[in-house]
Structures are given as C-alpha cells and as structure tokens.
Amino acid sequence: MLDVLDRSAFESYTDSLKTSNSVAFRAFKRALESDSTGWNWAFTRHRFKLDQRVLVMGILNYTPDSFYDGGRYNGLDAALERAECMVSEGADIIDIGGESTRPRAQPVSLDDELSRVIPVIETLARRNYLISIDTRHAIVAEEALNAGASIINNVAGFRDQEMIDLMARTNAGGIIMHMQGEPRTMQTSPSYTWATGEIALFLSQMLDRLNDAGVDEQRLVIDPGIGFGKTLDHNIELFRNLSLLKGLGRPILIGASRKSFIGGILDLPVENRLEGSIAAAVIAVMNGARIVRVHDVRETIRAIRVAEKML
Questions:
Q1: Are strands 291-294 and 220-223 parallel, antiparallel or unpaired?
Q2: How far apart are the first and last CA of the chain?
Q3: Is pTM, for the whole model, over 0.85?
Q4: Bridge partner list, 176
Q5: Per-residue pLDDT tens for 208-251?
Q6: How far apart are CA 175 and CA 85, in angstroms?
Q7: How large is the greatest C-alpha to C-alpha distance in the chain, in angstroms?
Q8: Domain CATH number, residue 283
Q9: What domain count does the chain have?
C-alpha cells in the first residue's frame, strides 16, 4: 500500500505523464495495474518455480576496485575458491563480473574484462554451476555464454540493441536492471519526479522491447537497481513500494548487499553492513522479491528461509 506521501507523488506523476506522453502513460498503467505475478523463470535447460522458494545469487567480483571485495578474488584460483565456497553455502547462481559498476567507477577495456571472467566461467561451467555474467557489453556477454554462462545480468537494462539482438538469438536468461545514467556519473544528483513510477515505466518498456524482438518474457527478470542512480530516499521508497512492480508480471531481483544506502542508515563502513544487508534482503522478500543478489550467502539464506516460513 502507498502511504500518504507516495500516494501524492503517484497522482502527480500519473497526471503529468497522461498529459505529456499518452503511450508511456498506458504502459505505466498496465505495469502497475496488472494482477499477474511472475513465479516462473525459464531459460536454456533451467526451470524455476519461484513461488516455492527464493533464489540466492552469490556475487563474484573479479575486479580490483569493486566497492566491497575489490581485489579480494583477483586471480583464477582465488575466484574459483570463492565460487566453491558460495555454492557450498547454498548459492543457486554465481554472478561473475569483471568490471566494477560502483559509483564513479572507471570503465575497463573489453580485453581486460574478458581475460578476467572467461577462464572462471569455463572452469565453473565444467562443474555444472549455474552462472550469470554481470556486464554492460554485448561482446563480453556473448563470449560468456559461449564459455558456459546461462544468464546475462545487464546493469544497463538492455538499452543496447546489440544486447537485445544477443538475447533474441540465444536462449539465455536475462536480468533487466534500471540505472539512471552510467556508473561514473549515476550518483551525481540523481533526480526523479517519482522514482517508483519512472522505474516501473522503464522496466515495462524494456520488457516490451525484448518481447518485440522475439524474447520470451519467461526468460526475463526485473531489477529496480538499488543504488544505481538513486539517493538514500529513492532506495527506501523502492523497498517500500516494491510490491507495485509485481504488476509487471516478472520475478523481481534485488541487489542491496552492503550498499551505501545501508551505510547511510547505520552510519557504518562497508565491512560492517552484514546485519543491515540481511534486513534489506528479508524486507525485499516480504515485499515481493524472488531473487536476491548477495555477498554473504550463508547468512542471507538462513534469514530468508525463516522469513519464507512466516509469509
């Protein structure tokens, strides 16, 4: 349910959108008023019924500058050991990234990104692990799929036509994430008329673009992009209104683990945000998320399994 402040923002945003862009207004209303819920996620040989349990995606950053674990798992042996640890703790998916997308991160070359992620993916794929490639680049995504990844986690939200074309000619799973701007600038005064509405509209439009390209929506998951071009208040608003995104009819993924908004609430550095991250994951599940992307797999799974029994 929307509280008084969000109800006012909702009404103001919809009135403005109705006047300025009738096509977008209809898409927005469809997104929020649908009564469908995305319980199924099906791609390649994988079929998940997400009404039965929440999936946990373990984060593996092969980067020198990620905001929490940058440099910790550089090197093939260290990365493989970390992946094995997360799988042993219960991770359903290993999400591998070779370029940091933290605020103000500098881009890396395609060669560097590929050299980091492909050997890890090839090795883990031989162990039959479910692998996601976290990348903004279609070339990296395609090479990762060829190496054994099954999911494209695209922080740019498939705004790149090459990414859409890649999804259309493969059977990979896809994660559509919202980001205002790009990593170097996204936290420079992010601004919305109403964050929930604008993000819902973006996700709805991207679902339509992928569907128009021939991508079965059963392969797709949506992610509102916590911390990607959002202030503390925007992030809190998204958690509070997360259930509204269920109207899009696709499973919701939330990646809030150890992010700066938790530090903003608790006034704690990244290494002391475990408890806040677990709380955020549980709240996300209570409000409709069916996949959580986390650094701390074992602790998060224990909390979520308790929460599932109580919902």
A1: unpaired
A2: 17
A3: yes
A4: 154, 222
A5: 999 999 999 999 999 999 999 999 999 999 999 999 999 899 99
A6: 24
A7: 57
A8: 3.20.20.20
A9: 1
